[in-house]
Each structure stands twice: as structure tokens, then as C-alpha cells.
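Renewal narrative, Specific Aim 1. Our central claim is that a sequence can be written position by position from structural information alone. The example that follows is taken directly from our test logs and has not been curated for this report. It begins with the C-alpha cells describing the chain, in the order in which they were read.
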């Protein structure tokens, strides 16, 4: 027990000593580039980068949704790491936010979901290199855990909205109960109709 406490103390000190120059604690991720940031309808997904259901949704919901409705929606992705279920969920969330600082969040997400069965701490670094990230900046960002507070804020926001698992989708703030492309598409159409009625 004493050895564990000593190890944790050393890790805490090392984390505190990481140079965070040029790294922001805020999230730099943007709306999906295949969507319209000025759209009146926003689709928000709360996801976990180690969640197999999120990986499936990325292929059978996210991609077709963006292909069909991309110009009509603002597509936003929020962190909801299920750390009690997925060992690398937080590390992957932090890595994706550090990649976002270099404009590569969506590329990192794609790489993660394509190679999710290989996810571990080493693969996160390998993927960052493959994406051509500045590795000094990336490593300092991940080792400092500077993004964790923002990630946990998104997680807490999701919980307050009723998110209990991943993926969970919202259309203009309304939770979609049935995670299917048809249900989300109908909610988008309904939201657009509601907005037109108010004009």
C-alpha cells in the first residue's frame, strides 16, 4: 500500500511538472467538417472512443447521416468516456482533444474507430504520429492531463441531460430514444418544420 501511494505521489508530481506552454485546457474540437456550422438544426452525439456501439454507430449512423443531411445540420461530438467499463476511454478522450488542438480531432476519431480493437496507450501515440501531429505538443498535452477537466465537464453535461450510455444522440436538445438513422432523420425533418413555422 505504501509503495502504491508513493508511486501515485511521484506520478502526480511528474504530471505537475509537464510544460503546458502553448496548450489550452479548453476543447478545440469543431463541428464535423462535413456538416454546416451555421445550420439551424444541431445533432449532438455523446460518445466513448472505446465503446463498440459507438464504433458501429460511426459507420451505420454518423457517416450516412452526414452524407444525407450534412448541409442541413451542425454535427457536434461530445465526450462521454465510460471509464468504469473501458480501460482506455479517458486516455483516448484526452488524446482526441490533444489532436483537436492541432486541427485533427475528426481524423483522430476516424482512426480510433477504424482501429478500435487495437486501442491502448501505445496505439494512441502511433495514431498521432500517423496523423502527422507535432509529437512534442501532443505528448506534453496528454501527459499533463490538461484536457481532463473539459472532458469531465462534457460528461457531466451529458449526465444532466439524461445520457446513461453511449452513443446517445440529440437533435436540437431533444434526446433520440431510438438510435437509428431513420429516427434521427425524422427528428431533423421535424426540427426544420418547427423552425419554419416560427418564421
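The sequence written for that structure reads:
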Amino acid at each position: 500500500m505504501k509503495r502504491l501511494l508513493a508511486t501515485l505521489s511521484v506520478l502526480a508530481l511528474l504530471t505537475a511538472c509537464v510544460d503546458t506552454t502553448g496548450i489550452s485546457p479548453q476543447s478545440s474540437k469543431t463541428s464535423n467538417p462535413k456538416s454546416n456550422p451555421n445550420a439551424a438544426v444541431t445533432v449532438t452525439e455523446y460518445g466513448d472512443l472505446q465503446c463498440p456501439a459507438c464504433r458501429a454507430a460511426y459507420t451505420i449512423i454518423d457517416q450516412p447521416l452526414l452524407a444525407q443531411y450534412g448541409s442541413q445540420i451542425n454535427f457536434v461530438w461530445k465526450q462521454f468516456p465510460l471509464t468504469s467499463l473501458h480501460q482506455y476511454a479517458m486516455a483516448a478522450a484526452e488524446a482526441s482533444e490533444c489532436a483537436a488542438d492541432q486541427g485533427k480531432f475528426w481524423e483522430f476519431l476516424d482512426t480510433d474507430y477504424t482501429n478500435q480493437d487495437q486501442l491502448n496507450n501505445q496505439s494512441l501515440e502511433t495514431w498521432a504520429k500517423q496523423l502527422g501531429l507535432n509529437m512534442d505538443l501532443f505528448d506534453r498535452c496528454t501527459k499533463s492531463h490538461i484536457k481532463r477537466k473539459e472532458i469531465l465537464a462534457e460528461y457531466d453535461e451529458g449526465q444532466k441531460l439524461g445520457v446513461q450510455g453511449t452513443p446517445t444522440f440529440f437533435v436540437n436538445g431533444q434526446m433520440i430514444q431510438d438510435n437509428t438513422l431513420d429516427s434521427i432523420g425524422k427528428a431533423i425533418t421535424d426540427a426544420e418544420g418547427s423552425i419554419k413555422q416560427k418564421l
